[in-house]
Amino acid sequence: MRELVVLGTASQAPTRQRNHNGYLLRWDDEVLLFDPGEGSQRQMLHTGISATDLTRICVTHFHGDHCLGLPGVIQRLSLDRVPHPVAVTFPAGGAEYFDRLHHAASFYETAELTVEPVHADGQQFTLGVGTLEARRLRHPIETYGYRLVEPDGCRMLPEKLAAYGIAGPAVGELIRVGHLDRNGRRVTRDEVSVTRPGQRFAFVMDTGLCDGVYALAEHADLLVIEATFLESEAALAAEVGHLTAGQAARVAAESGVRTLVLTHFSQRYADPRRFADEARQHFTGELVIAEDLMAVQVPPRRVASAG
Ligand SMILES: [Zn+2]
Description:
Blueprint: E1 2-8, E2 22-27, E3 30-34, H1 40-45, E4 56-58, H2 70-79, E5 86-89, H3 95-102, E6 113-115, E7 124-127, E8 130-136, E9 144-149, E10 153-156, H4 158-163, H5 169-177, E11 179-182, E12 185-188, E13 193-196, E14 200-204, H6 211-217, E15 222-226, H7 234-240, H8 245-255, E16 259-263, H9 273-280, E17 286-289, E18 295-297, E19 305-306
Parallel strand pairs: 3-4, 4-5, 5-6, 14-15, 15-16, 16-17
Antiparallel strand pairs: 1-2, 1-18, 2-3, 7-8, 8-9, 9-14, 10-13, 11-12, 13-19
Zinc ion (ZN) binds at residues 11, 63, 65-66, 206, 264.
Binding site for Zn(2+) 1: 61, 63, 139, 206
EC number: 3.1.26.11
InterPro entries: Metallo-B-lactamas (IPR001279), RibonucZ/Hydroxyglut_hydro (IPR036866), RNase_Z/BN (IPR013471)
């Protein structure tokens, strides 16, 4: 199962309709929690995903709407006696904030947090399901966006294997070595398989337009990106290090994104349809204007190409 579950969608301060930020990514056996703002622990109760399910927490930066939920979620890990270590990734420059949030109140700590800060642009973390990469974004404080990249795989074609009389342990050898000699002829892996394209998820929060935004969004199957403002406030957005819905949609269109999720809305706009209207002028793929507690599926794999 691969899906995004939205906990909250408000920038800066929660509103009656929108909780502070917060996003869960369910990706096979991994459940990643991104940017838990205030109230994230309670929002999780509505999703059917428990603290025990979490495998990693990623924080883009230490503004309150992206991290004030950490104390509650971290203490919940111990309250629920989560048996496995949970990795926590955040900008290394914000370690002092993380330490304070971690120990914001007294609790009996049983859960093991594996602290893995981001020290440099492009730093990668190896997960069971692929590579998590951090890219520097443009915001008044140190901020990193993230992307999860699953490597391409290969799917063997049974009818082609049968045609060459390859079966049993020989299949494993062919996959491992890349070729096999059969009846005086060399059969390569590419002849009997197709590429299974890996999937990509990208998470781009508070930032002005910069190279990091494009690097993260490139060929994402699912891109979650902030659209704090509309184009009418483009000058203000640039000044304070944020994106407009139009900019986010153009990035998605230029980067070959398939499903685009806009979120982190400023409370100055009462009608969320305005974000959709603006984004639609630039992006023709699947467009989602995030609402709290919404689930968004990662689209099916791109079509496999021959060997
Ligand atoms: Zn924010």
